[in-house]
What does this fold into?
Amino acid sequence: MIKVLLADDHSLVRTGIKGILERSPDIRVVAEASDGQEAVEQYKAAHPDVVVLDISMPSMDGLETTKSIREGDPQARILILTMYPERQYAVRALKAGALGYITKGTSTAELHNAVRSVAARKRFLSEEGIDAVTTRLLAGGPGASLIENLSDRELQVLCMIARGRRIIEIADELSVGAKTVETYRGRLLRKLGLRNNADICRFAYDNALVED
It folds into this structure.
């Protein structure tokens, strides 16, 4: 039996994913968490075989949570399950210590296979994920090296701005102050040589960081 810790900040989403996971007789959700800090605590308490994490969570996002769990247990097996397409975060998730990365549009069968693969300490990526990782490692695109200079949080803020989110909305979702978001915005503008939100949007679309 594969014991799973499921972390997502939306209760209804967790309920849905849990139902899908437990359609397989060899997978059981033994613990749940609604934010990154709770996920770290639940990992210590439940000792799951696999952690299934979303990227976007309050307290700590999925990348920070992955790093924190792995610091406490370098053998932790983590699967990122998120709405964000592979080209945005797959490489960063693998670098943080995750063994797999799939999106919430995946099929039930692929989700089950991903959990089983990660439980067996094998990497799991969808075809899109493999393409995204290969492209990023080959530095495909003129902005690839610039993107790599951004911190995980700066990239997250960039993508949210490009999707039309206001500073106060971003601050609320990330559970930080508006001034902190402004600081991240200022840093990413300097690192990318951009001037304003219009430039941010153009950069994000030119580098396929957000959907058309």
Remarks:
- The chain has a mean pLDDT of 89.
